[in-house]
Sequence to fold (190 residues):
Amino acid sequence: MPGNKSQHDTNITEEAFLAGEKTADTRHEYVNGHVYAMACASKTHNKIARNFITSLSDAADQSGCEIYFSDIKVRAEKFKSYYYPDIVLSCEDDDENDYYLSNPCLIVEVSSASTMRKDYLEKALSYQSIDSLKAYLIVSQDKPQVDMLLRNAEGTWDLQQFNDLEDDIELPCVDKTLSLQAVYAGVDVR
Fold:
C-alpha cells in the first residue's frame, strides 16, 4: 500500500489488500475495494479488551475455542470486507487463511466516540452476514455500557443492553457469564 495511507478513491483487489497488510506499518480495514487506516487505541480501550480476554480464556480453552485479538482480521464475504475486531472467538475450524477468520462465533468491538458510528452501523451489518456468528458485542470505553446483538433460534438478531456494573452478560459459544464489573475492572467509568 503506497505510503500506508487510506486509499478512499482507489479500488484495490482483496488479494492486493491482503498482501499489502502483511508488510504495512499501519493496520487497515478493507471495504469493497477501499482501504482505510485504523485509528489508534487508548489505554482504556486496551484495558477493557484485556479484561475480556482474561475473562474468556479458561472458558474458551474448555470449549475448544480460540481467542484472537486486534491483529487478526475477520472476513465478511458478502460485503467484501475485512475488519480487525478487538476480540474474536472462533469455535470451529477456520484454516482458510492464516491472517483472517471467516467463521467467528463471537466478536467484541471496544467503541469510542470516533468509531461508534462505524461499529453500530457498518460493522454490525457486515458481521451479521457471517453465518457462524452468534453474538456481536459493542463495548463503550466511556461509560458502563455493552450492547450485544445476539442471533436467536430463528436466525434473526436481538439486542440486549447492559449498562449497570451489576449486570451479567450470558455469552454464547463458551457458555460464560461475564459481569460488567469484570469488563470494566481497573477502568474509571462514570
In short: The chain has two domains: 1-38, 41-183.
